[in-house]
Amino acid sequence: MEDKLESSEQQHELTIDDVKRSAVEEGPQSEMIGSSLQLIIFRLGGEEYALPIDQVKEIVITPGIAKVPQTPDYIKGVANIRGTIIAIMDLEEKFGLKKKKGDQLKNHNYTLVIESDNHKVGILVKQVPLTLTVKSAEIDTSSSVMQYSSLEDECIEGIVKSEERLIILINIQRMISAENLNLLVN
Amino acid sequence: MIEKSKEKQYREMFFAEAYEAHEELDKLFTVLEKNPEDKGSIESIFRITHTVKGNAMALGLDPIGELCHTLEEMFTYIKDHDMKLDKEFFGLIFRANDKFGELIDTLKKNGEATYKGLVAKLELYLDKHFRTLESNNVNSEPPNSSTNNESSQELEPSDTEPDNESESNQPKINFSDQVQIPVRKLDGLLNLVGELIIEKDTIIARDQNRNSNMYKRLNRITSDMQYAVMDIRLVQVGLLFNKFHRIARDVAEAENKQVNLQLEGTEIEIDRNILKIISDSLVHLVRNAISHGIENPEERVGLGKPQIGTVTLNACNEKDIVLIEIKDDGKGIDPEAIRNKALERGMISEEYASTLSDKEVIQLIFESGFSNADQVTEISGRGVGMDVVKKATESIGGQVNIETVLGEGTTFTLSLPSSMAVKGALLFEQDSQEFAVPLSFTEAVISIRPKEIHKVNKGLMADYLGQTMLIVFLKDLFEMEGLDSFHDNGSLHKTFDSLKANDENINVIIVNYNGRYMGLAVDKLLQQKEIVEKPLTQPLDKVDLFSGATILGNGMVCLVLNIASVIEKLFSERRSVQLSQSMMN
Fold first, then answer.
1. B585 touching A, CB under 8 A?
2. Less CB within 10 Å around the terminal CB: N or C of chain A?
3. Closest Cβ opposite residue A85 in set B431, B481, B557
4. Dist CA A26 CA A21 (whole Å)
5. C-alpha dist (Å) from residue B20 to A136, B31, B48, B57, B405
6. What DSSP character marks residue B131?
7. B418-465, pLDDT tens digit by residue?
8. Which of B195, B538, B545 sits opposite A180 (nearest CB)?
9. Phi, psi at residue B362, to the nearest 5°?
């Protein structure tokens, strides 16, 4: 079910079509279509996190980032991705998963470009993300799951339980709107 | 001259629409032929012919006007009387539509059009099958026979144009000379051109023979291309102005005012996105002008003014800037009333209020605290949302000015860039990163010794051409959490305190906004450059230190300082500092 896309030594840029294509080629998912969901999985501070594949536009090698003063620390700045200027976020920092201060940008080789109707942001990840197809039934969205998580609950969509793994499904859209609200209040 | 070009544009627009109407009619006729009972099609055909007739007549394109008039009449009968539609009828209307297409082509080239024959045939059919219905009812024989005579006379030329007719039997496809493009695609194109320019700069910078003719040509082509794309995005302000007839009418009605809306300079062109961004502000200003500027009719008569008030929307060009004026001949704004209200709201101290000139007092209506929260009417009070108008205008690098004469009226002037794309900027370096200041805000660049800077209260001051001027180290600004932290003690002194008296000279960019000056101390001055500024998107759209960003030749992003909001914040801070001081006294 899990498809390694590229060996991480080779630095390739991937459009989401490449990712989807390889997912279709290798994934035994014919019987799962309908009630299934394709996810992009990435690691943050030792845990696995996921986003629905249709929110991820592409995966690029992290470009040069210009810092933006007067913004929260987890906003690393802005970068030029194919002529569009987008904000780059470090979710490890946002979720408080950074182990030590010295752990700097150098390790964040890849940027997931997330796009929806009203925003476009980049999320820093260390390795090339993987795809995973899960059944809707495997996603637990009950509030009791969220209660003990360290994340602000508006960011979490649910928990995916796939075999032995536990993957946190996040809702970027809601996170950004919440953040906007905070900035407004400040 | 302008009138002529305007008419030419109207004609172009008409022909583009006419082609569409022509195609639509072909489609509807075909649908109707298959199902002659289709009320929806009949209704649509009637509507289309009616519109085309009206527009054609207005432009003096009588042939099209007459043809559509006859068709419209036919469909009025069909609509109202459930006429039976036979084969002959469809034959006729299809030929009529072919003729319509033909007329568009000929009239566009200002050619001589023949159409009377077909119109006569249509008239004849009308007489024979449709009009009988009414003449039977009303029994008005004489006018009927006279039309008959006329049409039979006009029928003759139809015999002289058979060649033409057989030619039009040949199926012919017409194409409109205009295309409609979603703005999204234009934005994409502008982005691509921006990228192209950046790539070009990068390549040229790397090459040793960067002055070769080949590069000169490349430069010229890319810059032509950029201007061409910007030109495509321009629309006439009339597009927006024309929507105000209805708005003005509705507001006047609700407020029991009598208002005449005048539009001037509707042919001035401006970037479509700029027009969109300021549209809400314009609605606001027009509403205010009517509900708070223009007096009641009785009051106006009493004052010896014309009973009907006038609100004028005027646009004009000034170099690269488009000025939009919203002018009313109402009562004007009373500075005393503003002064009192600002005091009442605690926006300014009494001491400060007395130092302000009338002109400065009127500027207070643009402050966010001035909004009148207890106002409940849907039509807002002057002051409500004025800060929003100002912010919207400034977000695109524009400015709002106000001029008011008590008893004579008020004029708001929005000065807007005609194109969002390119602006001159001064690049500088701070904390090893490049930033930009728009040249429209830059006054001068100076270099001063640290000992020329003095601590005054919470800020720093220096002398510039005999005037004391506020100096802010950008580094201090960057280290604050937000622009509201100005008042934190010592936050503006940090960098200065770390300097030694015999340190190198400091680079200061003197910026100016709305007549207020300040000096920004930066690490290093770089070059002047034309930049393509793009707004920051979520979640950074609320950061008021920067108005946008641009992409440099090396592919890096360069943030553009929002001078307007920095100066705004800094000076409103000064005012409230004075306020708190005066309250302590």
1. no
2. C
3. B557
4. 9
5. 48, 17, 10, 18, 50
6. I
7. 776 667 789 999 988 999 998 888 888 988 888 888 888 778 888 888
8. B538
9. -65, -30
DSSP string covering B476-502: HHHHSSSGGGGGSTTTTTHHHHT--TT
CB < 8 Å & 24+ apart, contacts of A25-32: A27/A1, A27/A3, A27/A131, A27/A133, A28/A1, A29/A1, A29/A133, A32/A133, A32/A135
Chain B, window 249-288: residues with a beta carbon less than 8 angstroms from a chain A beta carbon: none
Given an 8 Å threshold on Cβ–Cβ distance, is B543 in contact with A70? yes
**Greatest pairwise CA separation for chain A in angstroms:** 50
Residues of chain B found within 8 Å of residue A77, distances taken between Cβ atoms: 557
Find all residues with CB under 8 Å of B576, minimum gap 6, and list them: B487
Task: Quote the tokens at residue B151.
Answer: 């049409």
Q: In 3-state terms, what secondary structure has residue B153?
A: helix
Collapsing DSSP to helix, strand or coil, B112 comes out as coil
In chain A, residues with a C-beta closer than 8 Å to the C-beta of B557 are 64-66, 77-80, 85
Which contiguous run of DSSP H or E holds residue B19? Answer: helix B2-34
User: For residue A64, which residues of chain B lie inside 8 Å, CB to CB?
Assistant: 554-557
Cβ within 8 Å, pair A87-B551: no
A82 Rama class: left (phi>0) / alpha (psi -120 to 50) / beta: left
What is the end-to-end Cα distance of chain B in Å, rounded? Answer: 66
Spatial distance between the Cα atoms of B266 and B254, rounded to a whole number of angstroms: 27
Q: What is the 3-state secondary structure (H, E, C) of A96-157?
A: CCCCCCCCCHHHCCEEEEEECCCCEEEEEECCCCEEEEEEHHHEECCHHHHHCCCCCHHHEE
Tokens 């996105």 label which residue?
Answer: B273
Nearest-Å Rg of the Cα atoms of chain B is 33
For chain B, the residue count is 585
End-to-end CA distance of chain A: 45
Distances (CA, A) of A57 to A52, A113, B413: 11, 5, 43
Burial class (CB in 10 A: 0-12, 13-18, 19+), A148: exposed
- Label residue B203 left, alpha or beta by phi (over 0 means left) and psi (-120 to 50 means alpha): alpha
ipTM entry: 0.75
**Which residues 419-438 of B are in CB contact (within 8 Å) with A?**
431, 433-434
Alpha helices in B313-433 (DSSP H): 335-344, 350-355, 358-363, 386-395
Q: pLDDT tens digits for A54-92?
A: 888 888 888 889 999 888 888 899 998 877 888 998 888
What type of residue sits at position B124? L
Question: Do the Cβ atoms of B549 and A77 come closer than 8 Å?
Answer: no
Q: 3-state SS of B443-473?
A: EEEEEECHHHCEEECCEEEEEECCEEEEEEE
Out of A75, A80, A118, whose CB is closest to B556? A80
CA dist B50 to B54, B68, B151, Å?
6, 7, 22
Peptide bond into B539 cis (omega under 30): yes
Q: Would the pLDDT of B3 be above 50?
A: yes
pLDDT digits (tens, 9 = 90+) for B52-96: 888 888 888 888 888 888 888 888 888 887 777 888 888 888 888
Question: Which of B540, B547, B558, B560 is the best residue to mutate to test the A interface, defined by the most A CB atoms within 10 Å of its own CB?
Answer: B540
d(CA B537, CA B547): 11
Q: Tokens 């979640």 appear where?
A: B539
Q: In whole angstroms, give the CA distance from residue B482 to residue A71.
A: 8
Q: What angle separates helix B183-206 from helix B213-232, to the nearest 10 degrees?
A: 160
* Nearest by Cα to B422 from B560, B524, B569, B239: B560
Q: How far is B533 from chain A (nearest CA, A)?
A: 10
Rounded Cα distance between B244 and B249, Å, is 8
